[in-house]
Write a structure and sequence with these properties.
about 375 residues, alpha/beta, two-stranded antiparallel ribbon
Length: about 375
């Protein structure tokens, strides 16, 4: 799987779009907000530069795309107002992979700028917003051009499927599964861990060249609290999706070999793994690391406005299925083929499995939020 080419959130504003099914990600941005505010105020405590470079990595598309930078702008505005100093110009960079729906974001900008002027006044800024397509596992910006980097719900995506997971001869290493599970052999667990180490180290190395000395990063991504990568908090949403696919295999709707050869480019690390890579890479000091529980449905509303204005009540399983579909459908279609009937069927089955699971267990996501400062 060519992750850079394939991975993107569902585009547009339709029923299965990311724009309409991103409550979990919005919740995660909200959870990380106090740490973002703390980091920005710290970076501005000594002096406020004339021009500040800010990047949001993995911005996606939809209402969340401008949420993080809006909150960052609010903090800077409040700091300038309380200090009675002129505001800096803001260079705001929105980054995601090449197939991200940047046009959706750009269409939001006129209203965004209008609201910014009304709330902050013409003396604030100016703000220059740019889209920067590309993988954050490589260089994206000129040297020492950024003062603050934010990323939310993105760094759990790997740059590639871990090496060695493809079918070797006629044997699938992770048969019937496409992520880590209780039944996965140790070699699968090791392959995912090694890929995370490579990717996170590369991410830190690239940002260390782009961020000024004393600059900060706040990163939020899926993780786990346990050192065991097979715990439910880490992988059970993938386990249920694999089960849903396998029911379709048993009915002859999908080939078993197709399931066996699909592996998710995803990893939810534990705090110890994150700390170790930060220490090994050496360019940043870890200021804070917090772990937060987030509901699978992000506490989303249980009603949905349908065509014609009718209201439909959604189960938790439906809400989770819509959220997961908006995130992973691009990868599934690239592997299994673009077929709306198959995808509709798959996520109906997944919804049932999730409803059943959540009726018995309150499994939650673990979201890690870390604050880093570039060494001087």
């Amino acid at each position: 799987m060519e992750v850079e080419r394939v991975l993107h959130m569902n585009k547009g504003a339709g029923d299965t779009s990311y724009a309409r099914n991103c409550t979990v990600q919005s919740k995660i941005i909200s959870v990380a907000k106090p740490m973002v505010e703390e980091a920005i105020l710290k970076s501005l405590s000594k002096s406020i530069p004339e021009s500040i470079g800010i990047a949001d990595l993995g911005c996606s598309s939809g209402p969340n795309s401008l949420l993080a930078i809006s909150e960052i702008i609010d903090v800077i505005y409040a700091k300038c107002s309380s200090s009675s100093c002129s505001s800096p110009e803001l260079r705001l960079f929105l980054n995601d992979l090449f197939n991200n729906d940047f046009n959706y974001i750009f269409a939001l900008l006129p209203l965004f700028y209008k609201k910014l002027g009304e709330e902050k006044g013409s003396q604030f800024g100016p703000c220059f917003i740019s889209g920067v397509p590309g993988s954050f596992y490589g260089r994206l910006f000129p040297k020492k051009s950024l003062h603050f980097v934010h990323s939310s719900s993105s760094l759990h995506w790997l740059s590639q499927v871990p090496s060695g997971l493809e079918i070797n001869s006629k044997t699938a290493l992770n048969k019937g599964r496409f992520y880590i599970s209780k039944s996965s052999p140790q070699s699968v667990l090791d392959a995912y861990s090694v890929q995370f180490q490579k990717d996170f180290s590369m991410f830190l190395r690239c940002r260390s060249q782009e961020i000024v000395e004393g600059g900060l990063m706040v990163l939020a991504f899926m993780g786990r609290s346990s050192s065991d990568p097979t715990t439910e908090e880490s992988c059970y949403h993938w386990e249920l999706l694999a089960r849903a696919l396998m029911t379709m295999v048993s009915e002859g709707l999908i080939e078993e070999e197709k399931v066996d050869s699909f592996n998710a480019p995803y990893y939810a690390p534990c705090p110890e793994e994150v700390k170790l890579e930060i220490e090994k890479e050496g360019s940043f000091i870890l200021e804070r690391l917090e772990a937060y529980e987030v509901d699978w449905d992000g506490e989303a509303t249980d009603v949905e406005i349908m065509g014609g204005g009718t209201v439909a009540k959604l189960s938790r399983g439906q809400k989770v299925a819509k959220t997961i579909r908006a995130v992973v459908e691009s990868m599934l279609e690239a592997h299994f083929g673009k077929d709306d009937v198959i995808m509709d069927d798959l996520f109906r089955r997944y919804q049932v499995l999730v409803d059943d699971h959540l009726s018995k267990s309150e499994t939650k996501y673990i979201n890690l939020v870390i604050s880093l400062v570039k060494r001087e």
